[in-house]
Kinesin-like protein
Amino acid sequence: MGTRKKVHTFVRVKPTDDFAHEMIKYGDDNKSIDIHLKKDTRRGVVNNQQTDWSFKLDGVLHNASQDLVYETVAKDVVAQALDGYNGTIMCYGQTGAGKTYTMTGTTENYKHRGILPRALQQVFRMIEERPTHAITVRVSYLEIYNESLFDLLSTLPYVGPSVTPMTIVENPQGVFIKGLSVHLTSQEEDAFSLLFEGETNRIIASHTMNKNSSRSHCIFTIYVEVHSRTLSDEKYITSKINLVDLAGSERLGKSGSEGRVLKEATYINKSLSFLEQAIIALGDQKREHVPFRQCKLTHTLKDSLGGNCNMVLLTNIYGEAAQLEETLSSLRFASRMKLVTTEPAINEKYDAERMVKNLEKELALLKQELAIHDSLANRTLVNYDPMDEIQIAEINSQVRRYLEGTLDEIDIINLRQIQEVFNQFRVVLSQQEQEVESALRRKYTLIDKNDFAAISAVQKAGLVDVDGHLVGEPDGQGFGLGVTPFSAKPGKKSKSKKTFKEQLRPSTPPPKPVAFEDFKNERGSEINRIFKENKSILNERRKRASETTQRINAIKREMDVTKEALNFQKSLREKQGEYENKGLMIIDEEEFLLILKLKDLKKQYRTEYQDLRDLRAEIQYCQHLVDQCRHRLLTEFDIWYNESFFIPEDLQVALKPGGSIRPGMVPVSRIMSLGEDAQDKFSQLQQVLLPEGPDSVAFYNAKVKTEQKHNYLKTMMGLQQAHRK
Ligand code: ADP
Ligand code: MG
């Protein structure tokens, strides 16, 4: 397979008592023919006409028996067909030179039978020798006459005459002729009957249809399909052996033929020259297009010519001097064919049904294997089948409980379950998103901040003020809720109007998102800068950690590969026998290098791993800083916001630097009640409770925070009421 072959060319010389010894000479190796033509004296004194030719071939068959011809020409091609290689054997030559004798032989004398019956015999003999394979044989017999197709086996009672003319059809499996009967034959005898039927029809047709049999091409095809019997192998092979008896190659019509003869001659000349073009094109690797469709002969043989099949051309010639001109022409054709190379390839196909069966078998086996692993790992029997609705609903409920906090963790069972858990996360998330949105819609009119027409309509109706703030709402409580401020873009805003601090205290406090932007540019600028800085450090560390992780994974993979190679080397050494020298194991250089490599990789792995651990600690620390900063930013903002818009002037004095209260550090509740110091209370609490266990800190921390928030809100409500009065 895959090796390039030449088209095999042989010449068979028809036996004669009148052999032109002076004109036709064979080479010593029987692989060449030299032709010598006597000078044509009629052409005058100056005569440049060529008189000597030498043709190189694969073999010259002179006085060869049918037996020898078969051995030399056909045996290998037929044998290889059972291995999946298409094969084509063609007889070429002028009428009467022995093409039909070579192909079919005489049907009266068994000894003189030709290639066709011998090929059938060989196929059936080989089937007998291969009980491990189920091999089917089919045959068809096609005649092409004046570019029309005839089924030479259509006369069989179970075939019946075809109503529509036959057509050549191409599909991915190859070329076939629609309407041509193909006959399954289970034994040699049946195959012979078919052959004789076809031969008889050829002769009858030449009488009844006034059809000259030497004017048509006849293609006998043996189709072979080989399935393995013992193996459950889904691969199977198919092949075709085409045995072609071509129409006479003599150039008719040159001497004033007319009518039918002229028509036949035109068709034959054309189809034979197209045949030559196609074969030559096939042998030319650079050529992409091969002109198969130019005539019925080449189109029919498309997947059996040159290219990827074994091809043999047998040229039948006369040995007499009188036929020398046609003989020369035939030999020229043969030597052109000899230059053509082919690349035979196996026609391998897949039996879909067998493949499914095999895969099912393997699946069952793998499931069993998994069950064994599960029981070895002491896991209760895990089901690996696709999940049903009830199982999916159960996972959905697990995910919901997990999100609510009533379920601490979701047990991992198998890959399918993990995938479904993620799936359900997505389902729950999108449901929640929808719920939030519809809740908002129930409560607020949501307008796209870029939809200016809608905005101005709402403004006209007096529902919102210029900032997009709902009229009648005392504050823009809750970030991002309610109508998004139309002028929320900080850049645009700072250009168009003064910040709130620069204005007199407004009667209506600005919405929090807007005020927050101002805060970040003013009092909160320093803490905001630190917050951003910490965040960028955190992101950078995270990126580095992810890169390190990738490197670690790569090293790990390489370690695995190296380990495997090492194991392989070891097993090789054990198989080949080990050497010991003074109690030391001798290993070869390759194994030694692998050990060194593995050591090196391990070292790299350790270093990288240490780096990653350091990075992780740093990330944790940075994350903590960022969280703290964020918290600080928001707390300070709240204080600032309240100072700026709610806390009465007189109280503010106390908050001024140098005043009795340090701004920014004291909760508003303290300012208002000025009795208890929650911070102090918390420190006391910590000191008392810490010995209970460090874990309690988070708990109490949260408790105090909630209390603070609660107090704060209460105070704010009071303030707002006071403010309105
Ligand atoms: P083609 O098919 O090329 O027109 P045929 O095979 O019909 O030629 O041969 C013409 C005649 O010559 C037939 O009677 C055939 O039996 C005979 N003949 C051809 N070749 C041989 C041969 N090698 N030995 C004996 N007879 C032959
Ligand atoms: Mg013939």
The longest strand covers residues 133-145. The CA atoms of residues 398 and 404 lie 10 Å apart. The chain has 20 helices and 19 strands. Confidence is low (pLDDT under 50) at residues 471-503, 662-679.
